[in-house]
Amino acid sequence: MNRQKPVQSKRKGSAIALVLLAVVLLSAVGVGLLSLGLHSRIFAIRNASDITARCAVDAALTKALFEMNEKLKVQSWNDSDLPQTTNELLPNCDAIYSYTVTGDIDSGFTVEAIGKSNQAERRANSVLQLQGPFESAIFVQGALILKAGTLIDGYNSLNPGDTDVEVKIGTNSILPNSVILNFGVTVDGDVLIGVGGDVQNVIQNQGATIDDMYAIIVEVVFPDITVPLLPDMGTDIAVHGKTLKIGPANSGIYQVIELKRAADPGILEIDGGEVVLCVTDTIDMGQDCEIVVNEGASLVLYLDGDLYSGNNAGINNKNSPLKFKLYGTGEVGQEIDLKAKGDFSGAVYAPNAEIVINAGGDIYGSFVALSFELKSGGNFHYDEALRNVTVDDEGLRFVVEHWSEQ
Amino acid sequence: MPKSKLTTHGGFTIIEVVLAAALTAIVIFGIGFMVVDSQRSWQKMYNRVYSDVVTDSYIARKTFDAVIRKASSKTLLLDDAGEWLEVGYYADANSAAVDRYALFSYDSGDSILSIEYGSLDPRQTLSIHTVCENVTSCAFNAAGRSAQMILTLDNGSQTANVTTSAVMHNE
Lengths: 406, 171
Known about the structure:
The structure holds 2 protein chains of 2 kinds. Chain A is α/β, with parallel strands linked by helices. Chain A has 2 helices and 29 strands. Chain A has helices at 15-72, 199-202, and strands at 84-89, 96-104, 108-117, 120-131, 138-140, 144-146, 151-155, 168-171, 179-181, 186-193, 203-205, 209-215, 237-240, 243-246, 252-254, 257-260, 267-270, 274-279, 283-285, 290-293, 298-303, 307-309, 314-317, 324-328, 334-340, 344-359, 363-376, 380-383, 397-405. In chain A, a hairpin with a 6-residue loop joins strand 1 (84-89) and strand 2. The N and C termini of chain B lie far apart (119 Å).
């Protein structure tokens, strides 16, 4: 018996077409997803690289600034051999940085920094500026007390026409009542307190007039003082009942300065130019005794011990505050008891010292100390000229004056 | 009398038809589900990468970063409630002093974060730009020489949180 072969359908099927369509659609979506994922990943990598490059360029600037300040600690500055590095690896990541410092001490220095991470690159330029320790009229680490009725204002001894002087007094402290402004105190400027402090708590205002008061955002740094190389004189300066005149040739290291009254007061006159004295122990001025800085002379005094002043004793600088600078190099708790028969003119940088000042007249200059108390005297006039520093001054550091990113 | 012709076509039973229809439906349904799910995933991923909320958050981060990094830390002004932050900056490399300001402010009514640029002396507004829209919350903080922005964007279907900080490099 013959079996008939089933007749195949002549109609075209649509299953293959459907399956192919689905495959195409799914492939398109899959490729789209992969593409999106790829773009997303590339976007994330670029972002991460950009952030890393940003960190690298910041690190480059920080290191360049550190290197410049280390170089500054060397006694004699030279403009050669300025810091630079190329393609230095930033630790713990794949970024590299480079920096170059150009310029000289007269025209200023510029840091060109580059940070790279993968394809990302950041460039920043910074102009560096030398900053001295006398940026504020009075700045302390602890307590600051002003007697009633004191006026704090500013002037510029090098430019009398400059009447727009920024005056600031303040403290790094945030402890209660660190700043006591007694009745009638007038500050022609701002009062600053330590980072994060509460002005109402830190400043005890007993009726003072001030422009503004606020907490600083970065703690003020008190640089170390390096005593210059001076000959050890192997003796003291002892003046009893007479006047001793010394000049630049007498610059050197002494153990003690002792001025005592006999029939007449003991007076130490600084004359004939710049005198640099380093006192390893104390300065003791008896009743009516004085250190006088004559016109045209200047005195830079490094003091490791305390300074005592008897009744009516004092330091009489007949020049602008630029001509008398006292650097306290002692340990915390150093005592500096400053007096002046008339006006006091000078700048004192003693970050570990407790300074008490009694003046017969006004006070001109700037004070940086552990604590400061103005007990008697007239008004306080900050000399803005103290901000003008040279590389030979003390307590200097480079700071960024102007930063820009390309 | 002619003999009737027998057909050679095989027939389908009703069971075969139902079974075939069910199998086809399952396959089509499966494929359809995969296509729709893939499309939904693609859309979701696309939104994560390119939606207005995401791009706005990216722009907000970049703007904040660029402005704060060139700012002067001495000029920082911060609202007690943290709703606005103002910094001063140098207009260009030749500026001797900080002569411009940038003010970030959050308008909760319009849900926008805007930035106002201006000159400081005399104080004069130069331009105001909308940094991003759909802002549901914005807070500014400052500590030391750093400033921080915490931003939340929400367009109803997607939320983006941005927390970004930058250091003010000028004194």
